Amino acid sequence: xxxxxxxxxxxxxxxxxxxEQVAEKVAGFHANGDDIVVVVSAMSxxxxxxxxxxxxxxxxxxxxxxxxxxxxxxxxxxALLSMALxxxxxxxxxxxxxxxxxxxxxxxxxxxxxxxxxxxxxRDLEDGSVLVVAGFQGVDESGNxxxxxxGGSDTTAVALAAALHADECQIYTDVDGVYTTDxxxxxxxxRLPRVTFEEMLEMASMGSKVLQIRAVEFAxxxxxxxxxxHSFEDGPGTLITLEVDSAMExxxxxxIAFNRDEAKLTIExxxxxxxxxxxxxxxxGEANIEVDVIVQNVSHDKTVDxxxxxxxxxxxxxxxxxxxxxxxxxxxxxxxxxxIAKVSVVGVGMRSHAGVxxxxxxxxxxxxxxxxxxxxxxxxxxxxxxxKFLELAVRCLHSSFGLEREPKDESTH
Length: 413
Ligand code: ADP
Ligand code: ASP
Ligand code: MG
What we know:
By secondary structure, the chain is of the alpha/beta class. It folds into 3 domains: 3-174, Acetylglutamate kinase-like (Carbamate kinase, 3-Layer(aba) Sandwich), CATH 3.40.1160.10; 262-339, VC0802-like, CATH 3.30.2130; 341-402, VC0802-like, CATH 3.30.2130. Helix content is 33%, strand content 26%. The protein has an 8-stranded mixed beta sheet, with helices on both faces. It has a 6-stranded antiparallel beta sheet with strand order 14-15-13-16-18-17. A two-stranded antiparallel ribbon has the order 4-5. A hairpin with a 5-residue loop joins strand 7 (137-139) and strand 8. Helix 7 runs antiparallel to helix 8 (213-221) and helix 9 runs antiparallel to helix 10 (315-328). The model has no long low-confidence stretch (mean pLDDT 94). Bound molecules: adenosine-5'-diphosphate, aspartic acid and magnesium ion.
């Protein structure tokens, strides 16, 4: 008998018919004797609908109230799924995040899980019930409802799997695994049977929304066996593992991630003196804005141009902070550009293969795509380009690195 945490995303519970299908599937697992905890998202489109309602009232509502609103989407689906299970003769109980004591910090709309009290869940499991838990939400120490950021139901599932020492955490979604790149953008994208936590973390951080970043972080930290699968089609999916399969030749690149949610800010003519980067980025950090790629050019006339990227949602706030900083530093103009995107090639194989960067830059050059900024990690190279070239860039890199082909299986030689 195994304990499995299964998470079903928004499209998988997007209608009553689909909720019934999910219930059928879960009932099947339960009938096999497994202990099941199900985590569900809100019905597809619901979180966006709630966000739109709020924006009709106020541009930036108080984050605490946003969380009270946004958490309702998942409360609907847990109840409906429990009903659908009960109808099939399966004992099921639905819970909000707060009810199962998913304790988070108080960073409303992007809260982090601190602790989970598993006592109540264990009691229900012992009693033979299926537990249906609302994803994406928790409660802070004072009892306020919090949410975990977009895509946060993945993190709820992994965190519950870690707390309960589940045998596997299964993320059911509308694709049958993690692909070499978003299969909706590149026709030849290929499902990866396995991908390492390290690679998955880079891909998620660089924009592959198939798994939320924090879910991957959590799974890596607590060594939770994690698998991505199709909700309604049978198949092995993708296993996220600690190690690459040693029988397979390690490909140089495993995947390509991209992110349209980027905007670029430049502050010109900044005095080239020690501490200036801190004077610029300190106030940005204090405004709770995350900075991504940073470039500072070489100084000629004792001033430098300082460029960095932020999420598009944060552009207006970052720009107003930067205008204030510019006048304090007697710097030049502040320029903003939101029509940019980031493309990243990711692979642990990069560690043992030279020339990945030059191959990437050559492929982009051949298509006439200009690179505005570059950043790297040990297993990733990212470039900022004009947004209009994004799909072309992803396609040409996918084919340049031969990602549509299966890597060779050395065990057959
Ligand atoms: P859910 O609602 O189930 O959480 P998401 O929409 O959050 O589903 O994530 C699944 C989507 O992620 C897919 O439909 C696909 O378009 C997208 N995606 C992006 N990159 C990848 C990738 N490398 N592999 C698979 N899917 C990807
Ligand atoms: N409903 C939330 C969202 O749309 C959480 C999730 O689906 O994981 O982002
Ligand atoms: Mg998701």
